[in-house]
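ARCHIVE CARD
Drawer: 12
Card no.: 0347
Subject: one protein chain, sequence and derived structure
Cross-reference: see card 0346
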Amino acid sequence: MEKGYSRAQLWALVILRVAIGWHLLYEGMIKLLNPNWSSVGYLMDSKGWFAGIFRSIAGNPDVLQIADFLNIWGLILIGLGLILGLFTRISYIGGIALLGLYYLSHPALINVTYAIPSEGNYMLVNKNLIEMITLVVLMLFPTGRIVGLDRLIFGKREAS
């Protein structure tokens, strides 16, 4: 197998990349297809260390409109990049940044509740943090250059 990965290791990494891509693409498409969607409620509910910044974004209609646009299209483009193995390094970095912002807005703090209920009880680690760390790990394995459109664009040369 290429780069010393077994077939099972390679496919496990690709499946993980595609699954996260699917999740991000789906989240972006749901927001895009809902004409009433806005991040204002999510931002106003921020209780993280940077809650003031997130609430100020929500309080400025022009900045909110830009944030909503970037959020929707960031999710869609990052998701497509991960699914297709296209510009994966950029997709990983974008996904890490976006998930990092979500985590900073709604960190898993003890005795903090949010308007949108979570799937469970968290202490510091939540799904956004786990997905972000997973993207960091996946970025270390250039699977897009083995199974993905990056292979067609960049060839099989070593990832930098």
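Annotation on reverse: The chain has one domain: 2-154. Residues 2-154 form one domain.
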